[in-house]
Amino acid sequence: MNIPHASPPDATTASGKAAARGAGPRPSTPPNTPSSGASGAPSGTPGGPSGVDGRSSRWQSHREERRRELIKSARKAVHALGSDASMEDIAVAAGTSKSVFYRYFGDKAGLQQAVGEVVLGQMQRRIQEAAQSAQTPREGLFAMVSAYLQMAETSPNVYTFVTRHGHGDADTAGPSVSTAGALSHFFAAISDMIARPMRSHLGGGQDKEAVIGYWPNAAIGLVRNAGEQWLASPPGPAKPDQEAMARQITDWLCFGIAPELQTPPPAGADPVPDRGTS
């Protein structure tokens, strides 16, 4: 938006008025006078550079505040309406028009990206706080998994909205922005959180670095896929609660599924004979 500069006073008209009052024209200001701005108006006046900079700063601040309000409104709308809510639905819930959302975010995928940066940033901080309070690497893993599931469960609609691939809105044509950028940053940060206590616990060595280099990313894949399947599962006796699911995922991360693969001996069976003696 172009902000018009305030027009300087008409020197000819001012001079004519001064003559009409019997006063002569004011002497011209010498060049390079410190009180003059680049536009010829004193600094700090509406026509000077300070006035222009002030208006630009206030306008930018207004735009940023308005953008935050729209993101907050969109998040509330998606929470209530579902992850497939259209831009029209979101705009109506926000009490504005969808053209306003297009002006600030480009399209629906742009809105996904903006909401995702806020939501995933909050999740990252919450997971980091949980990890810092843990005493052991295993406790840290459980705390991070639990924090992740808690925040995702708080609003599954919003979680789905910001983590699925970007898509175009039905009202727009052409390619859309993807939420991959926000997701990539989020999971890279979580991977680093997981790797740090592991490196401290396992120590150095080339073999340990290989584990630390690959395992955190594999762990994130397990947590995310298991967590999203758990979120999508309907309530019922077979669905564990949040804490039980977090503990199950943590056990898989720490011990694998080897205990479940071991076949227990049949009830009442004799123990395996000791073949070490004759």
UniProtKB/TrEMBL annotation:
Stretches assigned to the HTH tetR-type domain: 64-123
Record Pfam families: TetR_C_32 (PF19344), TetR_N (PF00440)
Membrane keyword on record: no
Feature: compositional bias, Low complexity: 11-26, 34-44
Chain intervals for the UniProt region annotation (Disordered): 1-67, 259-278
Residue ranges: DNA binding: 86-105
Top-level taxon: Bacteria
Key word DNA-binding present: yes
Xref: InterPro entries: Homeodomain-like_sf (IPR009057), HTH-type_TetR-like_transc_reg (IPR050109), HTH_TetR (IPR001647), Tet_transcr_reg_TetR-rel_C_sf (IPR036271), TetR_C_32 (IPR045823)
Keyword annotations: DNA-binding
Name of protein: HTH tetR-type domain-containing protein
Organism expressing this protein natively: Arthrobacter humicola
Taxonomic path: Bacteria, Bacillati, Actinomycetota, Actinomycetes, Micrococcales
